[in-house]
């Protein structure tokens, strides 16, 4: 599938991206503009022929049919026999969506109403602090969005505990008043060891203060039975169906902490944003379709050019947790080595995703991005407007830095220019040596997603954009983006290792390294 594109890549040799801008309208021609967003991928090697080749790959994978199947409730999560319908959670006008012949929308909208009522109650109550206990998809989405939307905070303070490391819950609870703290136990399965351990610790903390769980716990789960076993009555459980994948679940009950923090109206705006991106994804032609082009640019870099990682660099400090959120979304979804039918993939799976907000990253790891030997495609995000009108000069600097980085990565600095920078200080061989350290290869690919302002609606659009990108990549790779078998082995082994770590059983049968590490740790206990 990639042969023709690899041939195009080989054919362009050492062509410079900057030269592609000789064609006057390149920036506009290699951008997608919609929904108050501009996705500019003109600072890449993609030209008309390459774009046509990439779109042909998407068409060959029958992307449009697969997309419609997902929105229509087909069971595209084939290894688990489930539909994939997080989009139904933001289908605010309630157009019917059928699973097994049943319209799911009345239940979805009723749950949204129930969530809103719960959130309003909590916001009007004496609770000053809400602690969401969950991990992975039951943590990263609301935790990321809660920070992203801090200008909209109006309810009790929300905290997020995820790690089984006792430090997480201990640090979170330190300073909180048990009488004024509400716990939300967020777990699709209600069996996740980290979450259940933290929930028990939370209960013990309340009990130590002479309080009971009554009225202080809410569960968010697909498994009402397990929540009931745990002692949370059904009327305090907000449920959702198995067709909402964990890492796609922040649009429904798993988003309760966010809704409590920003209020139901703002949360609804977040859903409006997701829905707007769904509409765009369903209707825009592929070359004007943001998720499709975002995915194809990514696949050009990863599957064709073999660039193993992708840096996500938000010039928007409140998106500090976006890279972590995207790590789960993209790597748990598309980090798979077999295709839907069980055959080995014949190309690379999804890339390693990493990043940090700008400008902080500039003073940390950008050195490697500019002068290291590996090419790291960078995805910049930047808002036109900030939320601090009094600090407009900060925002101007922020935007200038974002644009400067992609410009520097595009242009680079050649040896002549580098010589000019130090010619007044050095001469001869020393000038040559010093100049070489100041050369920037340039010609490094970047994309920029610019948007008006980080409002709840815009955040919804951004998150839905990335969700659909993952979907497009998964369809083209022919994998199931909606299971996560790769996390199971570690979980099983951790359960088995527990008694070894506590010394209840010995290390017989373990490999030498694991046995040594267990013994080393035990020697301090
Ligand atoms: O271990 C991976 C995973 O299953 C994720 O996919 C999921 O988001 C997370 O664990 C938490 O699962 P749960 O919501 O069932 O506690």
TrEMBL record:
Which HAMAP family does UniProt cross-reference here?
G6P_isomerase
What PANTHER family does UniProt report for this protein, alphabetically?
A: GLUCOSE-6-PHOSPHATE ISOMERASE (PTHR11469:SF1)
Tell me, what does this protein do in biology? Answer: Catalyzes the reversible isomerization of glucose-6-phosphate to fructose-6-phosphate.
Its source organism is Pseudoprimorskyibacter insulae
GO cellular component terms, alphabetically, are: cytosol
- The reply to whether Nucleotide-binding figures as a keyword in the UniProt entry is no
Q: What is its EC number?
A: 5.3.1.9
What is this protein's record name? Glucose-6-phosphate isomerase
GO term, biological process aspect, one: glycolytic process
Q: Which GO terms describe its molecular function?
A: carbohydrate derivative binding; glucose-6-phosphate isomerase activity; monosaccharide binding
Q: What transmembrane ranges does the database entry give? A: none
Q: Which residues form the active site?
A: 332, 363, 491
Q: What lineage does UniProt assign to this protein's organism?
A: Bacteria, Pseudomonadati, Pseudomonadota, Alphaproteobacteria, Rhodobacterales
Catalysed reactions listed for this entry: alpha-D-glucose 6-phosphate = beta-D-fructose 6-phosphate
